Amino acid sequence: MAGSSSLDALVQALRRLPGVGIKSAQRMAFHLLQHDREGARMLARALAQAADNIKHCELCHTFTESAICSTCLDERRDHSKLCVVETPADQSALERTAAYKGLYFVLMGKLSPLDGIGPKDIGLQKLFARATDGVVQEVILATNFTAEGEATAHVIGEALKSRGLQVTRLARGVPAGSELEYVDLGTIAHALVDRR
Amino acid sequence: MAGSSSLDALVQALRRLPGVGIKSAQRMAFHLLQHDREGARMLARALAQAADNIKHCELCHTFTESAICSTCLDERRDHSKLCVVETPADQSALERTAAYKGLYFVLMGKLSPLDGIGPKDIGLQKLFARATDGVVQEVILATNFTAEGEATAHVIGEALKSRGLQVTRLARGVPAGSELEYVDLGTIAHALVDRR
């Protein structure tokens, strides 16, 4: 836009968001300036506060504002179980099921050799140290069921089994509420193999 | 996310952006915190600065940091021509053509009765006062060729013609570089009617 360096700077800054190109950035900037200045100020404060205050939990590596997150500090949880997930969003999905009462370890990524992301980049040493603290008995691998997620689960599983821990993986099978006719064949094949 | 109010606040604030739902907001927040904290701080500064500094040009109503924008102040431009556009993005598109050297009036919206947006909401009185300053001879209507844009152009055109101004509309026709076979029929019909 001609004549406004603040507007140009805002559009450029919005493009740093993932999935936002020049057109979306312009639309966001116009919307905030034209219809929602309070939203713009609120977002500015939230960004600055989050960038300054949020760090990683020393135990589970998730985002938190304290040294150790509230989940890890919760005495009512089962400290003998450790569930390994890729992102805080995955952790949140598991929490919403209310079916798991153990602790978590959040990788904040996954092994992805094609993108140059190896074991060091996702802090596997930290996970191995955490899992071998003597309290953890079972490690549940809940990485995604994608190629990278499966590879990550495999690498972690092998390493932890060699350290004498019980390692399990989330069950693969037919999703709840689905009709077999419309389920993909790979899923049905897995469900057959893992039948119980 | 459990245990971090800064992160929750950031996700909620990101949802104020147009086209951003809960999943995108989470993805944006994780990306900024995990990979681009400097980007988060930069965006925070840009938002605060833009929200505080950007106002509307007193003459053309576009976004600017001064009372009157640099385009309106430019003495080399043809002050007898006034081009009416819906948004600063449209103005920017016209500027990039380098085919227009007159001035602009930016509506910052369009008539849209279904959304309750009438003549007062898009400042048509301000446009009428601007166009009848005695210097402007021709008003070029460059609102979008959508239903709302056409209606807006019609209303403005009728009002300005009754005030004795020359009113023109951007030509409708076949886009540059296109093959007739693949152009929609409405466009070809318009191009036939407006042939020259």
Automatic annotation (TrEMBL), chains A, B:
Domain Toprim: 80-175
Keyword GTP-binding: no
SMART domains from the UniProt entry: TOPRIM (SM00493)
Gene3D superfamilies: 3.40.1360.10, RecR Domain 1
Pfam short name (any one): RecR_C
Entry's Gene Ontology molecular function annotations: DNA binding; zinc ion binding
CDD domains documented for this protein: TOPRIM_recR (cd01025)
SUPFAM superfamilies associated with the record: Recombination protein RecR (SSF111304)
GO BP: DNA recombination; DNA repair
ZnF C4-type span: 57-72
Keywords on record: DNA damage, DNA recombination, DNA repair, Metal-binding, Zinc, Zinc-finger
Function: May play a role in DNA repair. It seems to be involved in an RecBC-independent recombinational process of DNA repair. It may act with RecF and RecO.
Family the entry assigns: Belongs to the RecR family.
UniProt protein name: Recombination protein RecR
Source species of the chain: Rhodoferax sediminis
